[in-house]
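Ticket reopened. Same input as before:
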Amino acid sequence: MQVRMENLTKHFGTTRAVQDFTVTLNDGELVCLLGPSGCGKSTVLNMLSGIVPVTSGKIFFDDEDVTRLPPEQRGIGLVFQNYALYPHMTVMGNITFPLEIQKIPPREREERAREMAELVHMGHLLGRKPKQLSGGQQQRVAIARALVKNPRLLLLDEPLSNLDARLRLEMREEIRRIQQETRVTTIFVTHDQEEAMSISDHIVLMKDGYLQQHAGPQELYNQPANQFVADFLGNPPINNFEGVVRKGRFVCANGDGLTLPGFDKVPQGVPVHLSVRAESFTVEETPHESHMACRVDSVYQMGKEEMAILSFGGQPFRAYIASDYGLKAGDTVHLGLKNRGVFVFDLKTGERYL
Amino acid sequence: MTTQSKLGNNNYLLRQTLARALRYILLTIGMVIMVFPFYWMISSAFKTAPEMNIFPPTMAPRDWLNFGNFKIAFEKAPFARYFLNSIIVMAGSVTVTTLTTILAAFAFSRLEFPGREIIFSLLLSMMMVPFEMLVITNYQTMVKVGLNDSLYALILPFISSIFYTYILRNFFQSIPGGLYWSARVDGCTNWKYLWKVMVPIARPSLVTIILLNALASWNSFMWPLLIIKSDLNRTLPFGLYTFTTEVGANNELLMAASSVVVLPMILLFLFARKQIVRGVARGGIKG
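Engineering reply: fixed in the latest deploy. New output:
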């Protein structure tokens, strides 16, 4: 099912949680709502489920306007961060509960619940109570319960935050697998960029209630729409050099600079960030106008690569450098820039120029 | 070095043992103080009239199977009827109170309506008003609706409780909101959610409430004393009270009657002790 949000807005008193949010999510995809805490991503999810009424704007499931529809009429499945399993019911009881409410006959209920339990690999633990399950198992039951009534849309609110690191890795692959098998349109809220990058078809990145960018994971990383997107994705974080572009040359405050082919299209004389990912540097033998002359501050061995802390134009930055060069602290080195992972953003507005 | 540490060790062990011994001595004293009156009541119930007046008093009756006192007591006053009355009043007030408590606690914890917190604070503040102050108005109300001197008058003023509502509301609030919304999304109505999810989860709390309520109802004395006139509508504690004036100095009969009154509650507590403790603990700690 296609999910369309048009100018969706939510105010809590004077707090503006979500602002003018317009996005269309494709049928059968796993989409991630990503952003720092407090960016409004959970509010968007709660508006989709109908738990939180919208202030203005519209929500469409395919062509049906569901904006004012109560939660139970939207045909959604919901999984909470703390799983919200009914503690007094067994796994079977939990999974059949939604069907029991829909007054589906007991035999069919059990059949469908068993099928769902098999899908999430919990078929052997149907008699257990939630307390007797690990976090990952509870998560599986919660997903089965959400899916058993064949929802049009599956919503997961930070489903992995309560798990330890190893289980988190396992469960996110599981969520991906289950989604692939059922092909149910799924929306997943997280603040963890790695989680979002690894399993989603598309990512919707939010900040302060505003949509920042809606794109595939790789596109988001390679073609960030603005400074925030570039800063938010990537580990280590992207390097930002402050300076001004004049006559096609980027110049820092202390006069250090470099020239790149695209720089003449950037607005000249405006304060900007030259933003470069740590893996986008190349070591060059000779000085050149398109190379950065940098001082090496320190070097960390990381196996096949080294992570070097350098400075350029008086500004420290991180770069991955192949170990072959044997860099030492105090060296001066010339670095060129690759085509990928190099951007120019307006210093004030964060607008992308290059 | 070894001798010293050994000495220190011994000292420590000795102190531990002494502390434990002291603890048990204190506990034993406490237990004797608590249990002795009950023992005295029960043992006296089996004594004959001459035995009661022996000086110094004997610790145990000559015959533990002497049920004569019970027989006489039951002949002298309609204790069976009192017992039945007490059961009816207790069952009635516990059933209705539990129902109203569940509904009110749900409304005050889960439903959103304007003025919810203000109304609840108002109700809580009414807990400050002692029952004795309400006796006069309650009495007038009962007389006006013509229910005085009936068992209804013993039930009606006690069909809701702010205190129990407060306890249950706190428990309901500790149930994560995710459960509610999961159920709502699945099409569960408030009513169904309350009975299928919240009440089963809150069972330990409910058991505690029911037990406390049953006890309060069983032991209530002042209100029946005021509102009940006719002999046959008396409840056990009230009946016992009038019995004391009727039997005069026959303390062994009185003790037999008292034993009968107290016994059901003692049994109830013995059987439900675990439930009570668990309920109180769960209500206290978030669970």
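The mean pLDDT of chain B is 86. The interface with chain A takes residues 176, 178-179, 181-188, 192, 196-197, 200-201, 203 of chain B (CB under 8 Å). Please confirm and we'll close it.
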